[in-house]
Amino acid sequence: MKKSLIILVVIFAFSLVFGTSYAVIELHTKYGELVLRGNQVELDSKKFMEKHNVSIHEFEDILISNITNSTETLKNLHDSQAMAIFALAKISQSDRVINVIDSVIKSPNVELYFDAINAFFYINLYSTKTLTKIEEYIKLTDKTSDYRRTRFYVSLSYAIETNDTLSVEMKFEMIKLMLKYLTYDLHNWHMLDRDFCEKIPSYRHSIQRKNMIEYIQSKEANLTEWYKGELSKILEDFNLAIKEKPLIDLSDEIIREEIKTYKCTKYEVWEI
Q1: What pTM does this model have?
Q2: E-assigned strands of 20-136?
Q3: Residue 179's closest CA among 199, 161, 158?
């Protein structure tokens, strides 16, 4: 896994909203084919409902059925389900839609995490309530929990970098949430470490980073050679940092001040 500079920032930003932005799918319904194009899925949905006098509730039925009981071939299945999730979030934010998105995020279907999590953020504004729900997802422990966490961490990091509407306090709470789960698994620690170094410079020579390194070292037997290499790089950087500046406890005051002054100078993405 590595961090890559994104040259086409606009394309990345658009695709981050929904991975199926430019996909085109056809869903079989009793009214005929429902054609949904990613760049105008909301318009396509409304035209279909008006033409066939379909209520929002029935349209939800059509899309939810495609997500949960799709008869599409395996080749088209994930594109079809992803587009249905996209359309659901665009046209309805009912409790039923929220529950469907929630069930997909909690499912082992990793191919749909990108779209379901982006649908989650499309419906939910950043707030204390939203972060509480995200923490529930982060704390899930199943075979796909590492990948699910990665998707949430990427979304949170990108929002901090690009969402100018976020308050300093909200960015602080987002950083605190990720910092809390720095060593929650043996998969995401190195990405989070790199992100904290960029956004909170004092983290480089902090007790929190030292504790993370020591914890991962205690689990080194469980790491792949690639992760061991990443750990060595982090340890080298940490030792250099504490030679330049004293070891500190990363207080809330420090985090608030440094996230307040943080300015994203380049757009980067974690490759998964």
Answers
A1: 0.85
A2: 24-29, 32-37
A3: 199
Nearest in space to 102 (alpha carbons), one of 58, 147, 148: 148
What pLDDT shows up at residue 188? 96
Count Cβ atoms below 10 Å from residue 106 Cβ, excluding itself: 16
| Residue 128 zone, left/alpha/beta (φ > 0; ψ -120 to 50; rest) | alpha
Q: DSSP string spanning 133-163?
A: HHHHHHT--STTHHHHHHHHHHHHHHHHHH-
Residues counted in the chain: 272
DSSP calls for 74-97: HHHHHHHHHHHHHHHHHH---HHH
For range 62-74, the mean pLDDT: 72
* Distances in whole angstroms, Cα of residue 171 to Cα of each of 114, 248, 262: 22, 21, 10
Do 135 and 178 contact (CB within 8 A), yes or no? no
Read off the pLDDT of each residue in 66-78 and give the average, rounded to a whole number.
Answer: 60
Does the pLDDT of residue 11 top 60, yes or no?
A: no
166 closest CA partner among 196, 121, 213, 211: 121
Token pair, residue 94, equals 């009912």
Residue 152 pLDDT class (50, 70, 90 cuts): very high
The better pLDDT of the pair 9, 97 is held by: 97
- Going from N- to C-terminal start, the domains of the chain cover 1-123, 126-266
Interval 66-83 mean pLDDT? 66
